[in-house]
Amino acid sequence: MTNARILVVDDEPQIRRVMRTTLVARGYMVSTARNGEEALQKVRDERFDLVLLDINMPGIGGMEACRIIRSQGDIPIVILSIRNAEKEKVEALDAGADDYVTKPFSMPELLARIRAALRRSPLTSPGTPDLLNLGKTAINFVARRVTVDGTEVRLTPKEFDLLRYLASNPDVVIPHAKLLQAVWGPDYGEEVEYLRVFMNQLRKKIEPDPSHPEYLLTEPWVGYRFSLPKKA
Amino acid sequence: MDSVTPMETDSGDDYGSASPAFTRETPGRLQVGKQGEPRLEVLVIFTDAAGTSAALQMADELAQELEAHIRLLVPYEVPYALPLTMPAVRVEFLEGQISNLAGKPRLEVAAQIYLCRDKRRALQLLLRPHSVIVVGGKKRWWPTSAQKLAQALQKDGHQVIFAELR
Which of A56, A76, A125, B120 is deepest in the core (most CB within 10 A)? Predict the structure, then answer.
């Protein structure tokens, strides 16, 4: 799965550097944080598909950061730790971690665990197709490109994330709050007007007739639904 | 905000016209997209200092995510007893007030003051259909003037976001 955004949290610069290089080479978008506090700030400000979290850090530490991140949303968290004791693993998993990797680890194993964790992530679920053809509109989710009648249409990152989330859940009504939290982050949930503005912009860009949308449908008082074109 | 440009006043109908007496904006702010489409605009309507400040903050966030630019519209009502170009409050004072609001770091805003007789009518003339508008103010069970303005703009078919002042 490429294009997923991963936050690497470790106080050791070498580890952050190695992780960044390896993950970027695999097509992931990587952001780093030096400690728990910085990680929490980044999780609040940006949207990530996965967090790689070191346990032993100065400040609030990985375990507490894990608890807070989990309390705010469903981002998969993979713990990295030098401790191999059963008690530590149980504590981390109970704090909300999805997986626990003991250092030193082999890179192929870590990558496999990242892939496994991402499969459970709502924004990068395997339900998101690589390519989607909606009549004259073609969406390449891997390249993050949208073309209408062969002409490229520019979508902002947020518009693209919104479209990707909707497209990964076709023909399912997604409530406003769920959509806001999945795309904007855990602090959002009541900003229905925001969604309305973004949906209007998306419709203008991908729908043949934005005033009579075929794909991005409103479910009054509930949310939005991405309708796939019916096959003839 | 760099220049003050006097604009022509719509003298035909003094009662309802938008009558933009002055416009004040940052030159060269309007950008054109790749395909020749004008860049999306997020409009903020001035309500009061605190409400407008909240609206500008929200507009800033929205503009970044939509890759739009922000325009602050200040429709200022001039009583009939005074000539339209001579408001009770000096235009320079209004400009100073707006500069303080829009002059926050990182905020790129083109601000325009419109002297008018009727704010609602002025906005009807000024706004393009389906504009993206942010209005800031307090929310109360009994609608505040900012809430009423937001409702009226929504009724006119605009996409209105209310920035609640807590």
Answer: A76
